[in-house]
Every structure is written in C-alpha cells, then in structure tokens.
Design brief:
Layout lengths: L8 H14 L4 E6 L18 H7 L6 E5 L10 E5 L4 H7 L5 H8 L3 E4 L3 H8 L5 E4 L15 H12 L4 E4 L1 H9 L3 H21 L9 H14 L3 E2 L4 E4 L20 E6 L1 E3 L2 E2 L2 E6 L5 H20 L6 H18 L43 E4 L2 E4 L4 E4 L2 E6 L2 E4 L11
Parallel strand pairs: 1-5, 3-4, 5-6
Antiparallel strand pairs: 1-2, 2-3, 7-10, 8-9, 9-12, 10-11, 13-16, 14-15, 16-17
C-alpha cells in the first residue's frame, strides 16, 4: 500500500537471525514500535517509525512489539510479532493498515498476534528468561533531551516488578549490524542518491537573481514526490552569508547575482536516505569565490583518497583537518604559525557521519570502519565576513580497496 519501495521479507528475517545469534544466553530481545506523538488540538506530529523496529520487521505503522527469544522451548515462542490490527473505525478514517496476514508477508515473521495478547504472552515467558535486551536511542549526537519511549516504560516496570531479571542493551549489537549495509540496503541508498541528483539537475535553471530560496525548495520537493520519495531532512537552501548558518532552514530570502548558494538536500526512498550538498553560483562568480569553491573540491578529493576500511571517522576527520590546515595557510586565511587545529575557525563541523535508515545513522565514530559502511564526506569553508559559505558533500561506500563515491554522477563543482 505504501508508495515507496522496500526490501524483501528475507532481508528483515536475516536481520532478526543475526540479532538473535548475538544475544547473551538466556536473554530475550524486545523491540517496540514508535507511538504517535501528540501535537496541538487533536493532531499528532508526522509519524516516524523506530528505525531498529523497521530494520527488524519492515512494519511502518505504530503500536507493535517484536519478541525474539532463540532459546524458547517451542518454535512458535522464539520469534513473535504483535501488531495493532485495523479496527472498523480506523479503516473508516485511515483506510488500509497491516492485518495479521499482511504483517506476516511483509516481515517474514510466521507468528503474528494482536497487540492485545502481548501482556499475557510476556507473563507466560517470564520463567523461561534470565534477562531482557531493550532498544534505547544511544546516538552520540542525541542532545535534544529525554522523551520516554515504550522501551523506557517497560524497563522501569521490569525493575519494579521483576528486579531479579537482568537488563541488556540492544544498541551496541544493532549499531554493529546496521553499520554494514546489505545489498538490498545499498540498492535503496543508490536510488535515493540518484533521486537527489535529479533534484539538483532540476533546480539549476532556477539559480538566478530574485528567485526565492523556497522556490528552489519547492522544486526539490516536487522531484522527490514524483520519484516516490520524501525529504530525509529539512532542506537547506542558503544564499550568500546565510550559508554560514550550518542548519539554516528558513529558506525565505531571494538569491542575488554573484552569490554562492549552498544547497544541502537528501531524498528518502524506502526508509533509506541520501545526503548531498553542492554550492552553486548565481550568475558569474568572482575569481576569489571560484578559487575557494575549487579548493573545497580539492579537499573532498583528498578526503576520498584516504578513506579506507580500518580507519575511524575520528581519525579520518583529523587527517583531513591537518590537510585543510596547510591549505588554509596557502590560501592566506591562516598565518604560517597558526596554532594546531586553527582550521576549525573555518570548518567547525565534522567531516562526515554514517548514513542509512537515519540520515545520521548509528555507529561509533571511534571504531574502525568496516567494508560495507556508508558515510558522508562534507568538507566546507565558511567566511561570514566575505558573505559566503561553501560545502561539498558526497555519499561514500567503504570498499575493500578504499571507497566508492555513490554520488559521482553529480560533479563536485557545478555551474562554474
């Protein structure tokens, strides 16, 4: 029923099998679907599924529980999915939703039960398990505060009612599994990247004096929707000095001739994301602006040349940062005796992040990168005093011999 493509059921079954094999002895994994979040009046915020729940089930609707206990005595107790079946009222207002058979077909889970049966099932299994592994958001960039989830409420209840049962974290296991992209995931990421490139091609004719930033955003949205996708994050359309605001999303101002406009966008297709940035000219650029733009492109090329399996995101960042430090001296933006890491005055953010189901996907930036990881590479140069900010971002697949630029079809420097 959903308009976007999705991996086949075998993909989700394989993910569950890998998770089950990694659980501590005697431990059951319990993964909850996200719930709708109330907004104002009688509305809710747009629903977004728990990424780990989706990775393990493929189910995109709220209100479900996945149970995995590979040591259960009966096969039908080892892997069970509980969903909220559609009611007549829900069908009237919202139309189709997963029934038992549809959830079986989508997820590949043979045993699917109504969510109302979950409390009794859980109680029956208490004597069989020694501990529970739960899924919490432990992303190192999660700084927006704590919002209790079904997993938090379940953990609190477990500690109160059953303190002899141990609690385990699913995050380290799932972060390791999700970091290596399966062929089905790579296909969807490639398609999301290509859809994003199509959006860049569609907006090039709009880059002229007087065009509003939101007009460019509207064209991007059109391309994404016609391609069965959506936006992976709020588009950044930042002309001139506004490009020095790293997460500028007002997109409310007109473009001016001679400016650079930084455009950071990504399509989401079948729950998998792209994330590309190009800095494009509005009319003719000054020689100085073109020199800075091409310098950032040279940093992008260098960064790709040193990315390889075994290096960590942090080490990669430090290596490219040292290269930028020397380049900024050659540009005359830093003195020859500049203190170490002075480059951060002009490049204050990270070089890249993991990419997948989430734009900032899970994984440790301090651990060696495996073959099959997908990361962004986004060097930049920000000069508020000169009214310009430049960033060039590509999506890279770590390969045995280095990396593959998944976005190579879109040149780093466009329109100059």
């Amino acid at each position: 029923m959903f308009r976007h493509p999705a991996p086949p059921p075998a993909f989700f079954a394989r993910n569950r099998a890998q998770l089950a094999a990694a659980l501590p002895p005697g431990t059951a994994a319990i993964v909850f679907a996200n719930e709708p979040v109330p907004s104002e009046a009688d509305t809710t915020f747009p629903f977004q599924q728990n990424s780990n729940y989706y990775y393990l089930t493929g189910i995109e609707t709220p209100g479900g529980v996945l149970w995995l206990f590979p040591e259960a005595p009966l096969e039908e107790q080892r892997e069970v999915l509980f969903i909220q079946p559609p009611s007549p009222e829900r069908k009237l207002w919202e139309g189709w939703s997963y029934g038992i058979e549809e959830a079986q077909a989508r997820s590949g889970v043979a045993v699917v039960r109504p969510l109302a049966e979950w409390p009794a099932f859980w109680r029956r299994m208490l004597g069989r398990i020694q501990g529970v592994a739960l899924d919490f958001n432990e992303h190192d960039r999660q700084t927006h505060g704590f919002l209790p989830t079904p997993a938090h409420r379940f953990a609190q209840r477990l500690r109160q009612e059953l303190p002899a049962h141990s609690l385990h974290r699913l995050w380290p296991i799932l972060a390791r599994l999700r970091q290596i992209k399966a062929p089905e995931e790579l296909q969807l990421i490639r398609e999301a990247v290509q859809l994003t490139i199509q959006a860049y091609q569609a907006i090039l004719p709009l880059l002229r004096e007087g065009v509003m930033e939101f007009e460019i955003e509207a064209e991007i949205q059109r391309v994404f929707l016609r391609g069965r996708g959506s936006t992976a994050f709020s588009p950044i359309i930042a002309g001139g000095e506004r490009a020095c605001v790293l997460h500028y999303t007002f997109n409310s101002q007109p473009l001016r001739a001679g400016q650079l406009v930084l455009i950071d966008i990504g399509a989401r297709l079948g729950y998998y994301c792209a994330d590309l940035t190009r800095t494009l000219p509005v009319g003719t650029l000054s020689p100085q602006a073109e020199k800075y733009l091409r310098w950032v492109a040279s940093v992008q090329a260098y960064a790709q040349s040193v990315l390889r399996p075994g290096i960590s995101l942090e080490t990669w960042h430090q290596s490219v940062g040292a290269y930028m430090q020397e380049g900024l001296k050659e540009l005359g933006l830093l003195p020859l005796d500049a203190e170490p890491q002075a480059y951060k005055r002009f490049f204050p953010h990270g070089l890249g992040h993991f990419l997948g189901i989430d734009v900032h996907d899970i994984g440790s930036r301090y651990d060696p990168l495996p073959v099959g990881a997908v990361v962004t590479c986004e060097p930049g140069l920000y000069l508020p005093a000169e009214g310009m900010g430049i960033r060039i971002e590509n999506d890279l697949l770590v390969t045995e011999n280095g990396c593959e630029n998944l976005s190579a079809a879109l040149p780093d420097v466009v329109g100059v």
